[in-house]
Structure formats: C-alpha cells, structure tokens
Write a structure and sequence with these properties.
By secondary structure, the protein is α+β, with helices and mostly antiparallel strands. The chain folds into three domains: about 150 residues, Efflux pump adaptor protein, beta barrel domain (Elongation Factor Tu (Ef-tu), domain 3, Beta Barrel); about 55 residues, RNA polymerase II/Efflux pump adaptor protein, barrel-sandwich hybrid domain (OB fold (Dihydrolipoamide Acetyltransferase, E2P)), CATH 2.40.50; about 110 residues. Helices cover about 35% and strands about 35% of the residues. It is built from four helices and 20 strands. Strand 18 and strand 19 form a beta hairpin. Helix 3 runs antiparallel to helix 4. It is rod-shaped and about 160 Å long. Keywords: Coiled coil.
Length: about 375
C-alpha cells in the first residue's frame, strides 16, 4: 500500500511539471519612452585650418603650444633659413654687379664709346679723302680705281660707326635688363624668407601641434591646427536608415571618450545633404548647449540623438514582438496572434498605438 502511494505521488508531481507553462507573460504598462539614434563622431573646431610648411628645414623655434590663443599674423614657428640667407646674399651681390654694369660709366660702355670716338675720327678722315679724290678725278689726276677705293673706305667707316653705336645701345639695354632681372630675383629670394616664418592667418586657438622644436619639416608637412575657440563643433556620422529621423534642434546626449560616464547635452545644428562614400554615412553637426571645460580637438565620442519622446505611452517589451509587428495574446486557455501598430521604440520598450490594450496578457515562448 505504501509503494502505491509513492507511485501516485510521483505521478502527480510529474503531471504538474509537464503542465507548467513554457512561456513568459507580461501586460502592457503605461510610462515614458524615448527613441534615440546612436551615432559616433568627434569634436573639431569649426573654420579650422592647418598650418602647413612651404619650405624644408628644421624648426629652430616654436613659439606656441597646444591650447594657446594666437593673434592674426602672429609668428608661431620659425624654420632654419641659413641656406635661404645665403641665396639672398648671392642675389644681393648679383644686383650690385648688374647695377655697376648698367651705370653710364660702366667699363664695357666706356670701351664701346672709345671705339665710337675712333670710328668717328676715321669716318671724318675717309670723308675728306673721298672728297679730295672726287676733285682730283675731275681733272684726271687720279684713276677711277683710286676713287672707288676711297668710296669703299668711307662706306666701311660709316658702317663701322653705325655698328658700334648699335652695339652701345644694345649693351646698355642688356645691362638694364640684367639689372631688372637680378632685382626681381633678389625680391623673390627675399620673399622666400617668409616661408620660413610660419604665422597665423587669423585669431584663434592652437588645437594640435604636429611638429615640435627640432623636428625636420618638409614642404607640405602639417605643423599645427588652428581654429576659432568659440566654434567647437560635434561631427556625427549617421547611417542611411536613421538619417531621415534627424532634424535640426533635436537634443543630443554626448559621452566623450576622454570622460566616460559623464553626459553632455548638445543640439543638432546642421545636416549635410550628401552621402560620404568613404564612411558610408551622412554627416551631422551639433553644438554643446553649455561650454565643456578642457575640450580637446579630435576627441572621439558616442552620442544618442533623441528623435521622439512621450511621457504616457502604452508600452510592451520589444522582445515580445516578432516579425511583421506580431504579438501573441493569451485569452483564457487560448492564444491568438495579432498585428499591432507601433510608435516610439527604445532599446527595450516599444510604444503600442493599436492592437492591444492595457489589460491584455502577452505571451512569449521560452
């Protein structure tokens, strides 16, 4: 008899276990819900520019460090320009020689003038000889050959004089041109000195310094980043599926990688209309509502953009919704599947606009 009772008790226990529901139940609740779009990004100064070297050289002096405020045309870095100074000295010497050659009393011009004076004397002598031979020829005192030789000598002297005078003008013009060219060259090499002094092209703050004193800088190298200290911008990358939800003025909750666990409030200020093929995302700008102390340009961050919010929404857990917005409702011992209309979605909760009521029992199979 005792063995039978034990068997019956065990059978009852097994029956109870086999009838235990293999699903979870929940009823919709009313409460606040917030929908947000996650985005990653970084902080950059707006209207920032990169100070770039236009020459090769070592940085012999760095006058600023990160965080410094600078004025327009302020000297920030100076490169070694000893080689450039040598070029300037050579150019100055060339100008001096060119100036001497272009002077009216230059030796080359004086030599040509002396040749012209001698040619003039010879031309006068040959002219007198030709005139005398012409008179003598009329009396047949000289031959026709003698007269022709005298005429040839005169024409040769005249051509020589003209050639020398042309040479004088050409030499003087070339000397003036060489002086102009050497002065232009001097101006160019002097202007090249400015490329060794890296100056600010507007007031701003030094956010990053890429090269320090003593570093070798090549032409085109980035030396520093400078931007407007009053225009810190949050740049966010938004995926294609979420960009349609973003509007200007929306609240953004930002967490900086340099200050984990602390949230800063910002708001959307601009939405760029183009798609970035490289990042496969859209770019959005946001600005902090309040100043953030110790902000560093280039800081990486994560953000949640609040796209919708409702205080009294009918909510069900997101895990109770299957594909096609279907849910299972328990009605007594029966279960029915129905399609619901959803509204705001958070990570865990979904707002229900229609399809279920507050008193319904929702079922999720285990």
């Amino acid at each position: 008899m005792e063995r039978t009772l034990v068997y019956i008790a065990c059978a009852a226990l097994l029956g109870t276990a086999s009838c235990k529901p293999k699903y979870d139940e929940v009823s919709p609740r009313t409460g606040p819900v917030t929908e947000a779009v996650f985005a990653s990004g970084s902080i950059e100064p707006k209207d920032a520019y990169t100070l770039t070297s236009l020459s090769d050289g070592f940085i012999v002096k760095a006058y600023v460090t990160e965080g410094d405020l600078v004025k327009d045309k302020e000297l920030l870095f100076r490169l070694d320009n000893r080689q450039q100074n040598t070029q300037v000295a050579i150019a100055e010497t060339n100008v001096e020689y060119a100036r001497m050659n272009a002077d009216g009393n230059a030796p080359a011009l004086q030599q040509i003038r002396a040749q012209i004076d001698a040619a003039k004397v010879k031309l006068v002598a040959d002219s007198l000889t030709l005139a005398r031979y012409e008179r003598l020829y009329t009396t047949r005192s000289v031959s026709k050959q003698d007269l022709d030789n005298a005429a040839v000598a005169y024409q040769s002297s005249l051509s020589s004089l003209r050639s020398l005078m042309e040479n004088l003008r050409g030499t003087a013009d070339r000397a003036k041109q060489e002086l102009a060219n050497s002065r232009s060259q001097l101006q160019n090499v002097r202007a090249g000195n400015q490329y060794y002094d890296l100056i600010a092209i507007g007031p701003g703050r030094v956010y990053q310094v890429f090269k320090k004193q003593g570093d070798l800088v090549r032409r085109g190298d980035k030396v520093a980043q400078i931007g407007n200290p009053d225009s810190i911008i949050i740049y966010l990358d938004i995926d294609e599926g979420s960009i349609g939800k973003i509007k200007e003025g929306m609240q953004v909750l930002v967490e900086l990688n340099t200050d984990k666990g602390k949230t800063w409030e910002a708001s959307i200020s601009k939405i760029y209309p183009h798609f970035n093929e490289q990042t496969q995302s859209y770019r959005v700008e946001a600005r902090f509502v309040k100043d953030v102390p110790g902000i560093i340009s280039g800081t990486q961050l994560q953000a949640n953009i609040v796209t919708s919010r409702k205080e009294n929404a009918l909510l069900i857990p997101a895990i109770y919704i299957s594909a096609g917005n279907k849910v299972v409702i328990k009605k007594g011992d029966n279960m029915d599947t129905t399609v619901i209309t959803t509204g705001i979605r958070s990570d865990e909760w979904v707002e229900v606009l229609s399809g279920v009521s507050a008193g319904d029992k929702l079922v999720k199979l285990k």
